[in-house]
Amino acid sequence: MRNYVLLSKGIPRKIHRNLILLGFIPTVMMMGILPEKVEAHPLAKIDFAMQAAIRGRVTDANGLPLDGVTVEVKGSQVKTSTNKRGEFSIPARIGQTLLFHHVGHMTQELLISSDQDVQLKLDFQTNPLEDVVVVGYGTSKKVNLTGAVSTISQEAFENKSMSTPLAAMQGAIPGVGITRTNGKPGGENYAVQIRGASSINNVGVLVMIDGVRGSFSELNPNDIESISVLKDAAAAAIYGSNAAGGVMLVTTKKGKKDKVEVSYSGNYGVTQASRMPTRMKSWDEAKYYDMSVFNSTGSIYWGEIKYAWMRGEKLDVIDTIGIRTGARPSDFYPGEHFIIDPTRPNVWVSYSDVDQIAVALKKVNPIQTHNVAVRGGNDKTSYYMSAGYYNRKGILRYGPDSEERYNLRLNLSNQLSKKVSLNSTLSYTDADVYQPVRGVDEVILLAYKFWGWEEPYRPDGSYHASNGIWPSIIEVEKDEGKSTRRLYTFEGSSNLKIKDLLPGLNVDVIGSKRLGFSKGNSFQKTLTYIGAEGKPIIFNPTNSMNKYVNANTFTSLQAFATYNLKVQQDHEFGLLGGYSFEDFRYDNIAAGIKSLVTNEMFSLNWGDPQSATVSDGITTAAAMGFFGRFNYNYKDKYLFESNLRYDGSSRLAPENRWQLFPSLSAGWVISNEDFFPKNNLVNNVKVRGSWGQLGNSDALGYYDYIGMLYAANNIPFNNARNTRIYQSQLASPNKTWETIETANIGLDTWMFDNRLNLSADFYVKKNKDMLANMEVQSIIGVGLPTFNIGELKTTGWEMNIGWKDMSKPFKYWVSALISDNTNKLTKYKGRNIVGLGRVGLIEGLPLNTIWGYKTDGLFQSDQEYKDYGVVINPKTGQGDMKYLDLDGDKKISMGDGTLANPGDLVRMGDTNPRYMFGLNLGFEYKGFSFSTFLQGVAQRKMLLNTVDFQPMFSEVRMPYKEQLDYWTPENPNAFWPRPYLNSTHSYLASDYWLQNAAYLRVKNVELGYTLPSSLMKKTALNKVRVFVSGQDVFEFTKVFSFIDPEFPDNAGVTYPFFRTFQAGLNITF
To answer: Which part of the chain is the TonB-dependent receptor plug domain (predicted)?
Structure first.
């Protein structure tokens, strides 16, 4: 009889060949039943022989082969890994023990007890506690973490067309707020804030890609293996002055010691602009225009006859310009919708109904992403190579509006000797962005300015002037000019690793170099078109061009050593010490010229030399740091960690350049105590706490401690521009680091065989040395620097819960998260001024408070306003806003603009989002898969920008269709005030215009199908999957339908966000 021994959780058991699954053993042991025999299984084969290679096959609980399982001989350096078929071969002898390690599974041991062949199926039990999490300068098991760390895996970034990984991370990590600010190609800006506000100044999130500082803008999302987010000071303190805004550690995909694997993933789809304002019908628009003019001046411009012509009707009346009865425009000129004004020869007047949005913009636009990757290797070398392509067309119908990007990456690992390895990374990014010369946002705004009754072309085919003064929007898009931006980034890094230099001592040296190069140019042409008077009009009479070239270099060197020691199986110690150096240089040069001799060839040599401008600049910075960490683990029950970082920066004066940033954290794994009941209900419970300090280098200028001199040639004298030298800001040699101190307590628990996990954190964050302005007399005549005089406190909590059951045939998962935080500016010596709208800084209040008037609807008559007896505005009358006189002084005012006397202003909250949440769920069944992700904010207040949402703020700010419900004597219950030209008296900041910007968004939906493996056996393919998906599919919100609830406060008409619908294909060879 051939026997072997399985060691599970350190408990040896002799097992005979007559049991079906080893994975059944832990479950039975939980029940107090111990089987005596394990039957051999035909799916695996292990040859046992003296001094021979042991061969076998490793599968999961469902019998599927496991790729990448590490197999090693216990107590030696001999190891290998399984291939895609789960097979391995390793030299070993009878009496030795094999260890099997795999991420997401419990480590298992196998004692070789026979020299004869047996067939065996190894069955791993999933254990998320064994997952390895990337932390600063190392890794840790999830179960041993004492800091606040969240992770997101590669699945979040797959099968999506996106320009940045941040798009997939939005709402997916507790405590991490990611908001979009714009949707234009090449300008999809994302603001990232980890655990709320840390400062009133810039606070960037540190992004480390494979251990080197990087940027998401240069990273292909398909290359990401995982991202760890370090949220508290204990987790991030080892990065010191760079970590005030939190740290994101990105690990890219690596090679495998197996035969070559080639994979392709591609998707093609369309984008559709979301939540854009729509235009009224031209006759409604003209009527609104007339009413706004009438209410402000007492006259009208168009009238009922022309409204009818816009509707295409004939009228039996005589128009004021002498047109006979029964007429419409086409009766007087062969061009549809046009007439010739008899009082102004050659003037063609359009009476049409034109959707200027449809003229200028497209509803549907293509987007595509393609990725090819090759990975493989052997015992000495492994590699991962990838190429990615991303292309997105924007919404402009005629003008330049697109982004195109190429990514290349090579990750190479070489085992130079038994103890020495070298890991190298090379990456390249080439990105191109094209926009109109005046900016794509401005072109979109023109589509809302141009009159809806005007055709874009005259009957003779030439462009028709819009509003009588502007060229056609088509002409602006096509012919005015474009702006081109191109970015190249090349980065290389190498990590020399020495393992067991001494027993337990490992050394890493990482060197990297990044070269960035960008260039851009813009050309603005002179346009000629026929204006309202039938005469040529010159638009941009002075054509121009601008060029720039930027180059930046970033060099870093990091060296650190780790030492791990285990004493008597109960005490585990870890030490880390290291050094880092960073050097940065940015060079830029820009030139421009006007009055070029032609619109067709743009060169700096062809313009007016007197109009030429040129500028250049060089910015340099360097930083150095020393760091260390100490870990202690007693019986996996009591965990302790301490980090230190001593940082210096060239941005500060020498006497203030260096500062120490410490942290402490501890954890107690209660479930490992003897008194804790051992059952399947609760598998693991851990409480943890931390304290630490971080620095904010982003708040520092490059040369704040030096009195900088600038030159400008803007002094007119003797018929010439003369150069002057000036100092714009006083030096600040006493400025030092902003120090953010964070305390955190947390709970982690796993239940029901680790299928359910719950984590919760509560934190307090204080910035005690915040840089802020000081109020002084303006007579000083020069700008003042910021001083370390402010204090900001942020308090918050976060929680996530998830259930995951991967048992066949039906696998499913669901997880939810929610987080919230509030802040308070506890100390501020600047000006505490209260005013209308958003006020950023007031001592004793949260950041970005909203102030406005309380209202009581609209006045229904002029007499009602007269009887009210409160002075609002000389223009106020029926149909206008009724503001409440809270201080009783019979006038609506802001008092003296202080907290003590704000007049009639009230604080209506702040713009900070509250209760950010996400919900992720999905399932897999017999090749089919479905997943969806919902994301949102449960509480947020938004105050709109009056300039951009008020109709007829000027003569070219046309109303939206959504504003048709406006006040008239016949429509007294309308929502919108009466039309009024060039006045904001009904649109002042007030509770009437305060928007509830809470929302729930269907962020992603995907349905896929994987072809059966039985079909793949007949081909050269290993896996084929097809899918359809949608991103930002829909949202539930109460804000106006023409704005997105995620827009920044005070946002006006801007490039819209977009929805994406696509189909894709994944193939693995």
So the answer is: 142-247
Does the pLDDT at position 37 exceed 50?
A: no
CB-based contact 882:781 (threshold 8 Å): no
**Model confidence pLDDT, tens digit, residues 939-959:** 999 988 776 688 888 777 889
CA distance 187 to 1054: 12
Whole-structure pTM value: 0.85
Where b means 16+ CB within 10 Å and e means fewer, 545-580 reads bbbbebebebebebebbbbeeeeeeeebebebbbeb
For residue 127, what pLDDT band results from cuts at 50, 70 and 90?
A: low
Q: Which domain holds residue 40?
A: 4-126
C-alpha 97/C-alpha 108 separation (Å) is: 10
What are 44's two structure tokens?
Answer: 């695996």
Cβ atoms within 10 Å of 1059's Cβ, excluding its own: 19
Name the phi and psi angles at 745, rounded to 5.
Answer: -125, 145
How far is Cα 256 from Cα 320, in angstroms, rounded to an integer?
Answer: 83
Amino acid identity at 1055: Y
The CA distance from 785 to 792, in Å, is 19
| Residue that is written with structure tokens 């007339």 in the block | 290
Verify that 35 and 149 share a domain, yes or no: no
Residue 1067: pLDDT band with limits 50, 70, 90: very high
Residue ending a domain, choose from 126, 148, 166:
126
pLDDT at 65: 80
Q: Do 934 and 918 touch, CB atoms closer than 8 A?
A: yes
241 and 140, same structural domain? yes
Q: Which helix (H) or strand (E) holds 219?
A: none
Is-cis flag, bond preceding 809, omega within 30? yes
**pLDDT of 556 above 60:** yes
Bridge partners of 918?
A: 817, 935
Confidence check: pLDDT of 491 > 50: yes
Rg (C-alpha) for the chain, rounded Å, is: 34
> What's the CATH number where 37 sits?
2.60.40.1120
Alpha-helical regions (H) of 18-81 = 24-30
Domain boundary among 309, 344, 360: 360
Mean per-residue pLDDT, 55-82: 80
Query: Which of 333-342, 421-430, 785-794 has the lowest average pLDDT?
Result: 333-342
Counting the structural domains of the chain, the total is 4
C-alpha 939: how far from chain center: 20
Contact 149, 235 (CB under 8 A): yes
What value does the mean pLDDT take over residues 82-94?
83
* Statement to judge: residues 14 and 113 lie in one domain: yes
Query: Is the model's pLDDT at 336 over the cut of 80?
Result: no
Two tokens at 308? 């009818």
Query: Is 25 a residue whose pLDDT tops 60?
Result: no
